[in-house]
Write a structure and sequence with these properties.
With 143 residues, this protein is an alpha+beta fold. The protein has one domain: Roll (Pnp Oxidase, Chain A). 28% of the residues lie in helices and 45% in strands. The chain contains four helices and eight strands. The chain has a six-stranded antiparallel beta barrel, surrounded by four helices. A two-stranded antiparallel sheet has the order 6-7. Helix 3 crosses helix 4. It is globular. The two termini are 13 Å apart.
């Protein structure tokens, strides 16, 4: 991943994630993404359709975009981080995504509502959250 791609991912977090159904047709979902410690991450749950697809076939393409028609496609293999520390990984992911939003220290903006880190971690456990980690195979776009 070159510096230009890193800079784009550091600034933009809106994406569409494509996974493959068993019959090979694409399934697309809107997601948030962030570059966390040099790795591209997104959030999911154990019950999401895309999680089911990825457990069968780890290939995915991310389409990361801004509001000015710049975009980046990332063809990837996904590793699902479904581990005991997944709630803490989510906290790190959301802190990175929200660092320029002026979110107060010790808080997370959860769907327009400010909650404490403790409440956020509890929510991550209740929702059975996991992290998608993308290994970039090929990238292209107009960024």
């Amino acid at each position: 991943m070159d510096e230009q791609i890193r800079a784009f991912l550091a600034k933009y977090h809106s994406a569409a994630m494509t996974t493959l159904r068993a019959d090979g047709t694409p399934h697309v979902a809107r997601v948030g993404v962030a570059l966390v410690d040099g790795k591209v991450w997104s959030s999911g749950t154990q019950t999401r359709v895309r999680t089911k697809h990825l457990r069968r076939d780890p290939r995915s393409t991310l389409f990361v975009f801004d509001a000015e028609f710049r975009w980046l496609a990332l063809e990837s293999r996904v590793t699902i981080l479904d581990c005991p520390d997944a709630p803490e990984l989510h906290l790190r992911l959301f802190q990175v995504m929200q660092q320029r939003m002026g979110v107060p220290e010790g808080q997370i903006n959860w769907f327009g509502r400010m909650i404490s880190h403790e409440e956020f971690l509890k929510t991550m456990v209740e929702e059975k959250r996991l992290i998608y980690e993308f290994e970039i195979i090929r990238s292209y776009g107009m960024y």
